[in-house]
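Hi Y.,

Following your request, here is the sequence exactly as I used it, all 253 residues.
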Amino acid sequence: MKNYFDLTGKVALIIGASSGLGRQFAKALANQGAKVAVAARRIEKLEETKKQVEEIGGECISVFCDVSDEKSVIDCINTVVEKFGKIDILCNNAGTIVWDSVLDSTTDGWNRAMSTNVTGAYLASREAARFMVKQGSGRIINTASIAAHGGEAGSVSYYASKAAIANLTRALACELSPMGINVNAIAPGVFYTELTADSINSPMANAQKAALPLRRFGLEGELDGILIYLASDASSFCTGQVIYVDGGQTCKM
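Below is the corresponding structure, written out as tokens. Let me know if you'd prefer a different format.
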């Protein structure tokens, strides 16, 4: 019987893997047999991720990557290929939130959000795709957000950047899928991560949680299933999709 979710022999690169969802993604893919490269700016945190992957029996390397620096992204991709010989799965998970109202916002904050959330994903996808095209196969999985579905007050740059990720995913899929590279995005709702720690227990967040059909926020591991699906042969006819995993939030928006 074929296991469509087996990733044995595959090489996965997770960018933005120093904490939160990226760290969980690395462990999930390693659990399915993939060799894993984890990348981020915070080397000490990245080494913690590497250690956790190795503790579950996975093979893992850590690579410095600043997604706002084109050369750093190119060097990261090349390092992974030099080590493992290929990249089968790319997870673009680096992200940041700049909290401010539009009237108080700055161009620097806007550029920081766009550089990290959008340009970094574009650069990594472009560079990884160069190798995937030669292989004739590959999976690119972007991290979008429920923020791609609609806007709210409080972070105009974040909402704009995640909508951009959704359409970047679709555009890449149109161009790369004929060459064997499936491109999709996961759009999480609210999960308990380092990025959401400051706001997740606020009165606004508690009200948001109470309004969700599932009446709670996402827990560690609840994105593993969709990640593994998109990384594996099970998703061979799925490309250009933005898949919401949000406790039902967007079905009410």
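The two ends are 41 Å apart (CA to CA).

Thanks again,
Q.
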